[in-house]
What does this fold into?
Amino acid sequence: MQLIQSLPIAAEQYVAEAFHRRIRPPLQCPHCGKSGSLSALGYYERTLSRLAHGVIAILVRRFCCRYGCGKTVSILPLFAQPYRVVRNETIELFFRGAPYDASVMRWMGVLSRYRRRFVQWLPEIMRVQGLDSNRAPPGEGEALAWCRQLVGDYGSLGSATLVFVSVFQITLFGRYQCHRPNPPLG
It folds into this structure.
């Protein structure tokens, strides 16, 4: 399972200060609910776009439930979008529309694919929120306006992702195995 955590620093600072070492486990295992059972398992590396040219490698902290179910949980920093290389700040700038700064222009091809994926996924986002699912899927312009409104409502793309992963077990671009609720135990 992957949890999203808001951190007081940007991605470059996270790497420079080895902030991944300061990530603490949740108080309870999100799988089985056992308190105090999560212990450090290690890290996995993933790449993330830089505001300047290129990418940086970040380490994502992992924990294992040692005294309960034995399942793992990772803590993804809020500045990163699950399963996406482009950082949330750049995606958000892209969805706001032109004029684009250099950080957006460098990733325009990838961001265009993100936009198509968001437009395709929007009916599911609307469905899980309990919005009118009988209406026709929104066109691209309406979908992008909806995304801008969503970012405005939550304050940032990262904050919106945090809520969607925590409440609906989805991201704004898809549903992933690590965000699915656990099957009942028994």
Summary: The helical segments are 11-16, 88-96, 102-106, 108-128, 140-154, 157-168. The beta strands are 2-5, 38-49, 55-65, 72-77.
